[in-house]
Amino acid sequence: MTGAPTTNGLSLALVVAHPDDDAYGMASMVALHAEDPGFRFILIHATDGGAGDIREGFPATRETLGRIRQQEDEAAWRALGRMPDRHDWLGYPDGEVDQVPFDELVDAVAAILEEEQPTVVGTSGPDGISAHPDHIAIGAATDAAFARHASTSGTAFRRLLHSAIPNSVFERWQRQRAEMGMELFDPTQVYHMRGIPDEEIGLIVDARSVAHRTVAGLREHKSQHHVMSNDPDDVESWQKIVSRDWAVVWWPERAPGTPVLTDPFEGLP
Ligand SMILES: [Zn+2]
User: How far, in whole angstroms, is CA 102 from its chain's centroid?
Assistant: First the structure.
């Protein structure tokens, strides 16, 4: 077992752009706490992903993809074994989140967070993992919504996390891609994966004990398999990839030399 503290009554809100953004990293944080007494999980999607790629041969059209991806997302959490206690779709057009007036986006996220008073909020950072403008926009809006309530006491708005990949891991992935003859990510290009300096990572979660649940969820995003994995049936490799999860602790700011957290709720009441 991982030694994750139980979360008696604590809650986690994930705010992401697209169906499947919630299926990677922070899904394992949900899985680790899925059965904790009183744990509450709130999920917010900015878009239905309707402008995404359609895998060759997949039975979807431009008109149906958004609805299909919403269903895939629900199926993914069912497969992981923990449905969100609350799931809001903000309904913005996929690929255009950065064109929504910023204050409107902040208000939309803030309205839900205010109702829910989550202990910890997780979203995208300024790097967007892939610099996807939707990721960056929803992350910035969530930061602003969180900042209205950030608190150093009580059980609400105690910590804000940004999903991230440490450069050391990113470089390892690049070496593996090179060995497999695959095209490397070019972190200067939009839609390419990228890492951040390792020292900026403030949370490293050992998610090995729930990797099978995380991958069960990922596999339900069937319309996106071609962009998610080189071989979606290679469950073992996929479990290795999701066996660790990283985040920047965006708030409260970490003093230099502060030990890296091992759980999103570590040290919280
Ligand atoms: Zn995305």
Answer: 21
